[in-house]
Amino acid sequence: MNRQVVTVDGLAGTGKTSISKLLAERLGFVHLSTGLLYRAVGLLALREKVDRTDEELVSFIVDDHSLQLVLDSNRSARVLVDGIDVFDDLYSPEVSESTSQVAQFGRVREKLVGAQREAFPGEDLVAEGRDMGSLIFPDAHFKFFVSTDEPVKVERRLKQLKEARGAMSEQEAKSLKEKMKIEIHERDKRDSEGGFATTFQQPDMYLVDNSTQPLEIVVENLYNVLLDHGIKPRMSGN
Ligand code: DC
């Protein structure tokens, strides 16, 4: 592998995107969230009303459209679908749900392997997803596995929702919390049962417990771990 690749695997809501983004920034590497490609397929399945139980039909979506990864001004990946930036449409609950269904299919996953491995040739990468260190970049220079306790995930998600929605009653917050618990549990279960996701720390992965420390401290520690293991930052002054 003639570029440096750091992989970050972990289930939904573990905070791996925030960690990966900051780590990539710090290193001067490109940040690649491979979930973008899966989300693009999930979005198209919704838009085209494709039967999401039909593996073959869903996998044709990948053949019928151009999915292109490009870099934004922060050197973070975005995805173009047939030449159009769809980033703003990718993170709705409906698209997340559709994506989590289409990502279960082996045929879809196979068709997205090349786009992930060949993304941004020559660029050093922090690549995040579910099978980065296992399947996509088995020879990565360093592999992280991020884990967060379920109650912490629920609290963080609840905080995001409260910020987005504004004030809510105690009763509303309580019922939302119960809903979050079920949603997070179901999604983790589905990711795990699909058999593709790295759901536990593998022997060659460094475990990151993202339950207690502030993000900046976690990233600082991981950055130092990478330096200790011979990863060379790209930017001067690091
Ligand atoms: O990381 P994310 O939340 O953007 O991922 C969105 C969905 O895509 C999630 O259901 C898991 C799936 N995914 C996957 O199966 N494999 C990846 N490498 C990345 C994401």
Brief descriptors of the model:
alpha/beta, binds 2'-deoxycytidine-5'-monophosphate, 9 helices, Rossmann fold, 238 residues
CATH architecture heading: 3-Layer(aba) Sandwich
Which fold name corresponds to the CATH topology? Rossmann fold
As residue ranges, the low-confidence spans are none
How many strands, what sense, and barrel or not for the largest sheet?
5 strands, parallel
Principal-axis shape equals globular
Oligomer: single chain
**Which ligands, by name, code or SMILES, are bound?**
2'-deoxycytidine-5'-monophosphate
Run of helices and strands: EHEHHEEEHHEHEHHEH
Output the CATH homologous superfamily.
P-loop containing nucleotide triphosphate hydrolases
**Strands of the largest sheet, in order across it?**
2-6-1-7-8
What does this protein structure show overall?
- The protein is of the alpha/beta class and 238 residues long.
- It has a single domain, classed as Rossmann fold, CATH 3.40.50.300.
- It has 9 helices and 8 strands.
- A hairpin with a 5-residue loop joins strand 3 and strand 4 (77-81).
- The protein starts with a strand and ends in a 10-residue tail after the last helix.
- The chain binds 2'-deoxycytidine-5'-monophosphate (DC).
Write the layout of secondary structure elements.
Elements: E1 5-10, H1 16-27, E2 30-33, H2 35-47, H3 55-64, E3 67-71, E4 77-81, E5 84-85, H4 93-102, H5 106-117, E6 125-129, H6 132-136, E7 142-147, H7 150-165, H8 170-193, E8 206-209, H9 215-228
Parallel strand pairs: 1-6, 1-7, 2-6, 7-8
Antiparallel strand pairs: 3-4, 4-5
Helix pairs in contact: 1-9, 2-4, 3-5, 7-8
The protein binds 2'-deoxycytidine-5'-monophosphate (DC).
